Amino acid sequence: MAARFALSATTLVTGTGKPLAGAKINFFANNTTNDQDTFPTVALSGANVNPLICDADGRVPEAWADDTDLFSIQVLDANDNVIIPTFNDVSFISPFTLSSADVLAALDSNAAAVVINGSQMSGSAYGAFADDLTLTAAGTIDTTAGTTTLGATTIAGGLTVGTGDATLSAGVMSLPAQPCFQARSAGTANVTGNGTVYTVVWGTETFDQASNFSSTTFTAPVTGRYLLTVFVQVNGATAAADTIQVGLLTSNRNYFSGDTNTNSLGSEINVAFSIVVDMDASDTAHVTVTGVGEASNVMDISLESTFSGCLLA
Question: Which domains are seen in the chain, by residue range?
Answer without folding.
Answer: 1-96 (2.170.14.10), 100-174 (no CATH), 180-311 (2.60.120.40)
